[in-house]
Amino acid sequence: MPSRKKSTGKREYAVKSGRVDLLTDEFAFEVEWASKWKNAIGQSLWYGLQTSQKPGIILILRSQKDYSYFVQLNSALAYSKLEDAITVYIYPDDFQ
Question: Which top-level group of life is the source organism from (predicted)?
Fold first, then answer.
């Protein structure tokens, strides 16, 4: 579970060709609706590269039905051997 420290940082931090949604001392997070998980992978990798921070995704779930998107995201990360490279949190579950 993320600590309070991980959920605070610079918001909308500008980088070349984008803005990091949340930049902490350790992570460059892309915050995205669950249904847009595919976009989040590329953006988190780009933001990590641009900031020299670890790439991360905070996936926003509106309902329990959205949990299937989290499963799809993790399956894609495992298939591409990126599950250890990109940290993934679920909002609100991991922030309670």
Answer: Bacteria
